[in-house]
Design goal:
Elements lengths: L5 E5 L14 H12 L6 E3 L2 E5 L3 E5 L8 H14 L3 H6 L1 E8 L7 E4 L8 H9 L7 E6 L8 H8 L5 H23 L3
Parallel strand pairs: 1-4, 1-5, 5-7
Antiparallel strand pairs: 2-3, 3-4, 6-7
Helix pairs in contact: 1-6, 2-4
């Protein structure tokens, strides 16, 4: 039984065209997180793709990464309105899973506040949410190309992952599942 209902949202680019691209690492991790948490397959809703249990709701943004804020904010409000108990609504936590260039492939980093640090998807989310709403960010490392040239970086993040890289993301989802369970219990 959870102490805190979790709404875990991934941002990335939409399927099927961008499935398993590095820029959509958040979606790839969420796909595997669903398995780790023993949740049902994702279903399409008006606001995205979701899979839920009493303790966890996973949701994938259907929009392009850089304009994902409004869909995340809408889905978060819908989630909160689905909680009948005011104490549950107050305890609920938004978690956003996203790609992170500054981390090695498959490494995860949690942050509860701070700037978007140049991540346009996070900027969009932060602009769309109510001011002052803290949410947990789970950055999933995708590594960085050797150059910082913006065209090279754009090409790098849009490349499809190899099967080995997808497996690394599946392993990262195991780490995220441990964090999610701790958060749901109120330990983290």
């Amino acid at each position: 039984m959870s102490v805190r209902p979790l709404f875990i949202a991934s941002i990335g680019n939409p399927s099927p065209a961008y499935t398993n691209t590095l820029h959509s690492a958040g979606h790839t991790v969420l796909d595997h997180l669903r398995n780790w948490l023993l949740l049902p397959p994702f279903s399409k809703s008006r606001s995205g793709f979701f899979s839920a249990s009493p303790d966890f709701t996973l949701w994938q943004s259907p929009s392009l990464m850089n304009v994902s804020g409004k869909p995340v904010a809408t889905a978060w409000r819908t989630f909160l309105s689905s909680l009948s108990n005011p104490q549950e609504r107050n305890a609920a936590r938004l978690v956003v899973v996203h790609d992170e260039l500054e981390l090695a492939l498959g490494k995860i980093k949690l942050r509860d506040s701070g700037s978007a640090r140049g991540h346009n998807g996070l900027k969009s989310v932060m602009q769309a949410l109510p001011p002052g709403l803290d949410f947990t960010r789970v950055g999933v490392g995708i590594g960085r190309p050797p150059t910082r040239d913006s065209r090279a970086v754009a090409a790098y993040v849009m490349k499809k992952m190899t099967s080995q890289e997808v497996q690394i993301m599946a392993d990262a989802a195991g780490q995220v599942s441990e964090v999610a369970r701790e958060m749901a219990r109120g330990v983290r």
